[in-house]
Amino acid sequence: MGLKEDLKALEEEVKKLIETASDIEKLNEIRINYLGKKGKIKSILKMLGKLSPEERKEIGQLANRIKDYLEESIREKTELLKKKALEEELKKNKIDLSLPSHWIESGSSHPVISTLIEISQTFISMGFSVAEGPEVEKEKYNFDMLNIPPDHPARDMQDTFFLNNGDILRTHTSPVQIRTMLRYKPPVAIIAPGRVYRKDADPTHSPMFHQIEGLLVDRDVTFRDLKGILKIFLESIFGQDVKIRFRPSYFPFTEPSAEVDIGCTVCGGKGCRVCKGTGWLEILGCGMVDPEVFKAVDIDPEEYTGFAFGLGIERIAMLKYRITDIRLLFTGDMRFNQQFKGIR
Ligand code: FA5
């Protein structure tokens, strides 16, 4: 047999091997054995030297055509086997795309925090700045400089947590008034949101709760300004129809003083557990800054006047979202918290 026949026979042989090869390893073996450097086609080509130029050209072209053809066949078969392997793999590990995926719970603001932010933004929009003070406070700022000396009966109104070193957990945000007026000269317009602590616990009282203090000091500030600002604030939170009541009251650091009640939104004023049957719920204390407080921070009460207020965030959140027990806000019960998703 001549070289031409040898090549054709080799082509047929390799074609069959490729056709019957059932895995990629086998195909690699074929490539090495027949098409590689030491493969059978190469050894046939080595014999070309012994041929006449015409034969050399013809056999050389034939050998290259067969080589290209076989290489392409091996490549195609490799692709086919890879595809089959993938299909089998997918069949084995079938993925059901219609199954529901894992549920990832999204978080949301706690009603106390969203109420705190909403109230703060209302005052910020009226030109108030935000001030801060520490929760562990000196008696001096929490009581003395607010015109509540050690033996004053008003200290009993706010049952206090004492620390071993004589400091206290602040009972209200009013010490931030003192800290602010010691640092800045009038005009001053601040709000001070934060946590406060008292030995108190019932459906409307919690041992830890949040207040927002407000303080505005300037020349010619009157009680009318205080009423106007509080009315704008309460209407923005509860709507234009909110019922507001100013009741004369007493705080050692304001004179005159008042407490503000709003019509109970839980029962619509009929009387319920939240408003203790009165139809009203007290939400804040306020008044004109007492001249004694101005003197303690070295502001001349003859030149300046001011108003201050302190409101309870939880009470407002309770009225806004009709929550009947303040303690529900702090249980951390997800069934309760989840009801407020999307409120902010
Ligand atoms: C004060 O704390 C005064 N510092 C407020 C003030 C500031 C008056 C500036 C004048 C000028 P009072 O103790 O009334 O006041 O508390 C203010 C508000 O906090 C109350 O109206 C009520 O809404 C809320 N509050 C009081 N105690 C609790 C409590 N234990 N749990 C939840 N809210 C409370």
- Return the CATH class of the largest domain: Alpha Beta
| Helical residues, percent | 40-55%
Mean pLDDT: 91
What order do the strands of the largest sheet run in, or round the barrel if closed?
1-4-5-9-8-7-6
Radius of gyration: 43 Å
Number of domains: 2
Helical region count? Answer: 11
Overall geometry:
rod-shaped
In terms of per-residue confidence, which ranges show pLDDT below 50 for 5 or more consecutive residues? none
| Hetero groups | adenosine-5'-[phenylalaninyl-phosphate]
**Helices and strands: which structural class?**
alpha+beta
What percent of residues are in strands?
15-25%
Task: Give the second-level CATH assignment, the architecture of the largest domain.
Answer: 2-Layer Sandwich
The description of the largest β-sheet is: 7 strands, mixed
Distance between the termini: 90 Å
Strand/helix succession: HHHHHEEHEHEEHEEEHEHH
CATH superfamily of the largest domain: Bira Bifunctional Protein, Domain 2
